[in-house]
Design a protein that fits this description.
With 330 residues, the chain is mainly alpha-helical. It folds into 2 domains: 213 residues, Rossmann fold, CATH 3.40.50.620; 82 residues, Orthogonal Bundle (Tyrosyl-Transfer RNA Synthetase), CATH 1.10.240. It contains 14 helices and 5 strands. The strands form 2 sheets. The chain has a 3-stranded parallel β-sheet, sandwiched between helices. The chain starts with a strand and ends in a 6-residue tail after the last helix. Bound molecules: tryptophan.
Length: 330
Amino acid sequence: MEIVLSGIRSTGNLHLGNYLGAVQNFVKLQDDYKCYFFIADYHSLTTHPTPENLYKNVRQVLVEYLAAGIDPEKSTLYIQSDVPEVAELYLLLNMNAYLGELERTTSFKEKARKQPENVNAGLLTYPVLMAADIVIHHADKVPVGKDQEQNLEMARKFARRFNTMYKVEYFKEPQPFNFGKELIKIPGLDGTGKMGKSEGNGIFLADDENTIRKKIMRAVTDTGPTVPNSEMTEPVKNLFTILEIVSEKDTVNYFKEQYQNCTIRYGDLKKQLAEDVIKLIKPINERIKDIDKNNEYLAKVAKLGAEKARESASKTIKEVREIIGFKKFY
Ligand code: TRP
């Protein structure tokens, strides 16, 4: 069975865009692949979170992924820092990663620009840690968005370099995972661009019903069509895009027709959209609340994940140490 692996950023709550665009696909992969999903908490240290925030964020991400349908029995769901073997492989791969190539990566340049007061070595070697995450489980496929393609390319490069250096065919070169269909982009509620974390733009899986209603009722629209069959403005098009994903075909057609003959009332459209979004999110939201209360369950999940991940990781480290030439004197 092919191995799929993905690292999950440990900051920020999941929004509808994350869910429909990525997490829902992860859930479906679990039956057909051997999946590793981990919360990238070592990586998050590049921005120096406080100990309280680090813990809270990791916990929240764990709760939300479980609530969204990641099954800790089917998949290996773990917290990166529970697998110190990753840190060792990172150290070893760093010996073969060059300053020039690391400085040239887009994500490094971007982060260095965003946090000029904190351009630390962890930020520079972020792609090396990511490569260690991936190759430690010999992953075949990594589902990544556009922004992570270059990092994945670096992972292939580091894997290849290790093989060449030690004249082995040990590490696989991880390929980007293609979900087949075009990736859906979920637009935000503020009229432009995709759904993100900014205020007023996103609907979160942790939002309760009333919050979702309020957010959607406040979504940006326009003054309404005055000429039949006119082109939609971006904010209105965005609401229809979400409607098409969450609502029944009949509902979409009904409002499209109303738009085309200029009788549409955006308030009605929003009310319907809110109810359909709630229908989708509510079961997940309820599971978030349940799991959040259940420390015992979270402990069990984290322990199981750590055990499964370390089993695979420690085998790799043992083999890598042999290849490199570390020999025991005792
Ligand atoms: N860099 C990824 C992100 O920002 C997270 C990540 C860390 C990751 N390690 C990974 C993704 C390994 C895929 C594979 O989203």
